[in-house]
Write a structure and sequence with these properties.
311 residues; Elongation Factor Tu (Ef-tu), domain 3; elongated; alpha/beta; 10 helices; 26% strand; six-stranded parallel sheet; Rossmann fold; single chain; 14 strands
């Protein structure tokens, strides 16, 4: 899969079948849309492609009210690739991009820049400055732009729309089973293991650290987890996604994982942390002794969970 930050250079433009969206989480609804894009591309000898945005447009317009993120950029791109997408046009959402008129977005970005020949959108798709563009405008421009337009109906599950919002809602209350059902796979975060402050080691619970690059993740708290990518088999542990209020006031989110009975150094390794069960919310403690006792209890709960089940 080729990833272009912005539009591709002229020499690398090729006719494509396109879907546009944030694709946060690449859930079952997204996958239905992307499956149709790939089918249409193959039938027309086009390249299956996606245009997506970073940051999320709502993070640009209203940072304090922006939705929590289901997935980081790495996981989103991996999800798109797994669906058969061959090109991703990653647009930096800033003031200049937000000011493009709906008409220019079609002509300059989609038709000229992406060489779009076929487009699939959801029934609520809006675009362009002040969200002035809609399905009706895309239909009016289709003949002059030389593209086909198709609309995908909303994907539902038990009467509920399958959406990133529904996944966020499930993760916010620790309902990992519901989140996995909507996503079509267990919830996980992928990242490279970073050097940290080594504070966990002094408490008797060394951790591997993964940076949370977006402002607010949908999953937060303490979890039993399995980590993929460090041995041939997933390794059990306990993890915290949070701000570490007892020891840090920087406001930076971090994913910390304590692996059970594991001592190897794996800095720089790309790993995937699979969330099994939420144990509790993050808390602030008055002393390090209280924090250590809480971590010990979390580890004991997670060990008991793994020992007593077939997960």
């Amino acid at each position: 899969m080729k990833i272009f930050r912005g539009l591709p250079p002229l020499a690398e433009r090729s006719p494509c079948a396109l879907a546009i969206g944030n694709f946060d989480g690449v859930h079952r609804g997204h996958r239905a849309l992307l499956t149709r894009v790939v089918e249409a591309a193959r039938a027309r000898n086009l390249t299956p492609a996606v245009m997506t945005f970073e940051p999320h447009p709502r993070e640009f317009f209203a940072p304090g009210k922006a939705p929590a993120r289901v997935a980081n950029l790495r996981d989103k791109l991996q999800g798109l690739q797994a669906c058969g997408v061959e090109r991703v046009y990653l647009q930096h959402f800033n003031r200049s991009f937000a000011s493009i008129s709906a008409e220019d977005f079609i002509d300059q970005m989609l038709v000229e820049g992406c060489q779009m020949k076929w487009l699939l959108v959801g029934d609520d798709f809006r675009f362009g400055a002040r969200r002035a563009g809609d399905l009706a405008l895309l239909r009016r421009f289709a003949d002059r732009g030389g593209y086909e337009l198709e609309q995908l109906s909303t994907v539902t599950d038990g009467g509920e729309r399958v959406s990133s919002s529904a996944v966020r809602a499930a993760l916010s209350v620790g309902d990992l089973a519901r989140a996995a059902h909507l996503l079509g796979h267990p919830y996980a975060i992928t990242g490279r293991v970073l050097h940290g402050a080594k504070r966990g080691r002094t408490l008797g619970y060394p951790t591997l650290n993964l940076r949370i690059t977006h402002k607010r993740p949908a999953a937060h708290g303490v979890y039993a987890v399995r980590v993929h990518g460090i041995t041939d088999q997933p390794w059990p542990g306990v993890a915290s996604v949070g701000l570490r209020p007892t020891v840090d006031d920087s406001g930076r989110w971090l994913l910390e994982v304590h692996l059970f009975d594991f001592a190897d150094q794996i800095y720089g390794r790309l790993v995937r942390v699979e969330f099994i069960k939420k144990l509790r919310d993050e808390e602030k403690y008055d002393t390090l002794d209280q924090l250590t006792a809480a971590i010990r209890n979390d580890a004991d709960q997670a060990r008991a969970l793994f020992a007593g089940s077939a997960i």
